[in-house]
Specification:
Strand order of the largest sheet: 1-2
Helix content: 40-55%
Largest sheet: 2 strands, antiparallel
Distance between the termini: 76 Å
C-alpha cells in the first residue's frame, strides 16, 4: 500500500490559441495520432481531443456551438438569472407590502423620519448600499412624504 503514493494533481495550465491551432494541425495531418501528439507535447489526450472537436465545430465540419455562440449563451444565462432574481425580489416586496405599507413614519415634528421596510428601520444610505434595492427601483420609493 505504501508503494502507491498519491500523485499531486497537475497545476492547471493555459495555452494560447496559436498553440492550440498548431496542435490541431498536427492531429489533422494524419501522420500521428491524437494520443501520440498529446504525449509528445506533454498534454492530456482529452484536452487535445476537445481542441480538435472545437476546431471542427468552428470550421462547420461538426454539429455544435461555436465559441461565439457559447459566449452569447453564457451571457444570456447570466442575464436571465439576474432578471429572475429581480422578479423574485419584486414578488417578495409586493407580498410584504399588501398587509403593511412601505412608508416613512414620523417620530415627532422636526425629527427626521426613519425608513421602515418590512418592519425594519433603515437609514437612506443603508438602503442604497443594498444591491437588491438599487437594482430594483420599485422597492426604492421610500423617500420623504
Amino acid at each position: 500500500m505504501e508503494s502507491m503514493a498519491k500523485k499531486k494533481p497537475r497545476p492547471r495550465r493555459s495555452f494560447t490559441p496559436e498553440f492550440k491551432v498548431e496542435i490541431v494541425g498536427l492531429c489533422r495531418r494524419g501522420d500521428r495520432s491524437v494520443g501520440q501528439v498529446a504525449k509528445d507535447f506533454d498534454l492530456t489526450e482529452t484536452a487535445v481531443r476537445l481542441w480538435v472537436v472545437q476546431a471542427e465545430t468552428e470550421a462547420g465540419e461538426r454539429e455544435g456551438l461555436t465559441s461565439g455562440e457559447k459566449e452569447e449563451l453564457a451571457r444570456l444565462r447570466r442575464e436571465n438569472r439576474r432578471l429572475r432574481e429581480d422578479v423574485e425580489i419584486l414578488k417578495r416586496a409586493t407580498v410584504h407590502s399588501t398587509g403593511q405599507r412601505n412608508r416613512a413614519s414620523s417620530l415627532s415634528a422636526g425629527v427626521s423620519k426613519p425608513r421602515i421596510f418590512r418592519g425594519r428601520v433603515f437609514s437612506f444610505n443603508a438602503m442604497l448600499s443594498r444591491s437588491c434595492w438599487v437594482r430594483c427601483p420599485m422597492v426604492v420609493f421610500l423617500g420623504r412624504y
